[in-house]
## 1
Amino acid sequence: MSWACARADSRLALLAFAAALAAAPAAAQQGVGDVVYVPTPQVVVDTMLDMAQVGANDVLIDLGSGDGRVVVTAAKRGARALGVELDRVLLMQARQLAEREKVADRATFREQNLFETDLSQATVVTSYLLPEMNLRLRPKILALKPGTRVVAHDYHMGDWLPDQRKDIDVPEKKVGNPGLSHVYYWVVPARVEGVWRGTAGDRAWEFAFKQRYQFVSGVVRSGSFAGDFERVRMIGEELRFRFGAGAEEREFVGRAANGVIDGKLVGKSRGKPVVERLTLKAANG
Ligand SMILES: C[S@@+](CC[C@H](N)C(=O)[O-])C[C@H]1O[C@@H](n2cnc3c(N)ncnc32)[C@H](O)[C@@H]1O
């Protein structure tokens, strides 16, 4: 399915979501705040956590945690997990679920507005919110530590394209996209836009990067040589691309962290690989 179709689908789904929610019985738990409560089906929760490979080293935050199912499922996988929620009845139900599932030591819930939540300790952020809420959160999410994984049920983040998407048949789902769930997965990219310089052996290199979210294009120069590459996907801090041709063909494999891009240049000499360490520093840094 094309991205435009997916967006049109999302708009239709959003109308259905709003209509179904408006028709929900008043006695049902509604949630409070910027979007009403609709639980993510468990099969979708499992897929979300699988896509982010949630495990014992993770700190997961679910934004608008409802009955706590995402947080409790993450805790059962060994993660420390926090749910933030404004609805006190849902908070009580979530804490009861954590007790029942014997993960209350790792699954905690806080009465807090998700827009005011400190996400800096999260390695994984999950949500099932409306698209405009995702867009409002997007700058804060993009400013998180590179490598932070983000998984959203049903709704995307505008022109920040996901790194992965899965569509799951969920026959029992009646709201949002009835019968179908979309799961979107992103990895927060490091910021590398700009000019970087470094030396490998006795050769000076300059890399000029343009970046749009996780996609990087650039020009590599050394002496009279110039080579370019287009729209390479960064995964968190990791950057890998090929440039040049013939004797000047190389691959750069690097990691952008702590103000440098530390990596290696892999070329060939007489058919054999030649690997040189190259640490790039920002030209204006
Ligand atoms: C669609 S439900 C998703 C529940 C849960 N994350 C899940 O996937 O099953 C959204 C939840 O967000 C909560 N919520 C809405 N606006 C909020 C806000 N500003 N701060 C915290 N929670 C909010 C609602 O009460 C509701 O429980």
Note: Confidence is low (pLDDT under 50) at residues 1-10, 18-28.
## 2
Amino acid sequence: MPCPEVTPLSVRRARPDGSAGSPQRRVLDPRAGRSQAGGMSPLSVPHWYVCPSARFWNCPPAPDGARAFHASLPGYAPTPLTELPALARGLGVGRLFAKDESARLGLPAFKALGATWAVHRLLEEHAGGGPVTLVTATDGNHGRAVARTARLRGQRAHVFVSRGVHPAAVAAVAGEGARVTTVDGPYDEAVRAARAAAGAPGTLLVQDSGQPGYERVPGWIVEGYATLFAETDEQLARAGAAPPDLVAVPAGVGSLAQAAVVHYRSPREGRRPPVLLTAEPEAAPCVLTSLRHGEPRTVPTGETAMAGLNCGTPSLLAWPYLRDGIDAAVAVDDAAGAAAARDLAAHGVPAGPCGAAPLAGLRAALGAAARPGLDLAPDATVVLLSTEGAEANPGYSPA
Ligand SMILES: Cc1ncc(COP(=O)(O)O)c(C=O)c1O
């Protein structure tokens, strides 16, 4: 465990080789604008986590393959990396960019990167085995991506949709030709229902959350997300920007955050590793809660406009990467998310609620008390992953 000690005030820097004495975990409440030292138990402050030594942890890179596969798909094009100078000034950082996933392989979210690569790998293995039904659970975007991929590959899909997903988003999954079963329960329950249904002959489970004994497919999904980060590297270089000092990632079960860890924590010659900040809804902070406790935790989930992030349990495949490689995590409420969505839209990034969460999270993280824990210089380059467009969440209006 990288951060065995909770030390609210004194954070010692780890050495770049990660060999520094004891890594430290720092817990602040950015909304309170001060660190929670003294009488208060750090774990009683639910909104913030920082572990500066995590940026010096490293792991092997993602295997090759997904990027070339995506580039071979009809309609593939890198999504835009939009620079946001006015917002950068407001936040007091050097250069700010949003990776805009509002139109990815014909869908309004990044999820097709994982679904297409995982389904490709599964069907390769299954070649000659006859038609299949691809089964998954979703809170919106992943299910639509699996349904679309199944249709394009001439296969069937059965998608279990959790409670709280907007009817228009459910209709969009059905519109891909999938059979849809709505589950009157939270996302975790939809995952259980999909898993049970995938026991039937002729079915293949395509879930983006790993559990013991079910790791290969979510592993391929995470590999698929690597394309987004490779594009970002190239686009930053073309913009004459430095490699990122901070990357803000929205987290549901944490598979996208796992892909961020794999990308930015694998050895990179002479580059200072960025801070990786996860942003979650206050209604479902499973990654933040798990990081604060040092072990995977299930949290009760509530209602949030950030439907794609409304997950109660982190992926157990992602967990070791999140534990060791994520150095900051924050939870934000829907009002902060809506304000971020409005600001991104005003600057040309049509973010849906999950896509706006990183900006909301960054704002909380850059609050006066939190910034020192992040060790971010005023000329820092920051990347926000705007993982869905407004169209992904048709019922949502941040106005
Ligand atoms: C738009 C969007 N952003 C981010 C995420 C979070 O991804 P993960 O569940 O891998 O953490 C999701 C998950 O569904 C999503 O739909």
Note: The chain has 13 helices and 15 strands.
